[in-house]
Amino acid sequence: MGFEITSEELASLYRYWWYVAHLLGLEGRFVEGISSNAEAARVDALLQAVTGTASPESFELAMATIRAVAGALRATAYVPERLGRQALYALARRFQRPMRAAGC
Question: pTM surpassing 0.85?
């Protein structure tokens, strides 16, 4: 998105995501010690190898999430809902591989 973060900030972000994974019930051994994008990419590749393609239900969940966040942007930041959805679609395409964000 055009800004840089330090290696310390990145490591802090991955510690945060380790905690989120813990709260979600994911075994710590899967994400423990990840402190760089390269390490996270290896774990993501393993996950993608066993999860297969997205289901219609996952697409519906993603769209519902985008609608909910766009609604929150409208309510809190006065961003028109349509503009908020378009911005969120653009972010999804930016952050995800093109095939994952194909519906956006």
Answer: no
